[in-house]
Amino acid sequence: MPEISFSSDKIMDVETGEEAKEGERGELWVKGPQVMKGYLNNEEATKNTIDSDGFLHTGDIAYVNAEGKFYVVDRLKVPASCFGSVF
After folding, report:
1. Does the global pTM surpass 0.85?
2. Residue 47 and residue 16: Cα distance in Å, rounded?
3. Domains and CATH numbers, the chain
């Protein structure tokens, strides 16, 4: 899978807040030009989703293998809702 230029990603241990080791599950965090800058007119939601280093906390539980491939295996956060529909 090709890398995305100027982007970073990492898996963070949900309990310790430390970066997870290869093969360990944690929350997927992403950063780069493809990531939204925040929620329109909702500073609180933005603060809860994007940290001060610019990483978006996806709410996806994932792990990375020895080849650097990421696998999403679960959800941490409650799905988003819009106009009464849950996504």
Report:
1. no
2. 20
3. 8-86 (2.30.38.10)
The H or E element that residue 76 is part of is none
Given a contact cutoff of 8 angstroms between Cβ atoms, the answer to whether 28 and 58 are in contact is yes
Listed in sequence order, the DSSP H helices in the chain are 43-49
Candidates 9, 33, 41, 27; CA nearest to 74 is 27
The two three-digit tokens of residue 84, written as one number: 């009464």
Q: What pLDDT is recorded for position 15?
A: 94
Rounding to the nearest 10 degrees, give the CA dihedral for residues 12, 14, 20, 22. Answer: -100
The single-letter DSSP state of residue 46 is: H
DSSP SS3 for 73:
strand
Q: Which residue has the tokens 């610019």?
A: 54
Q: Can you name the residues that pair with 2 across neighbouring β-strands?
A: none
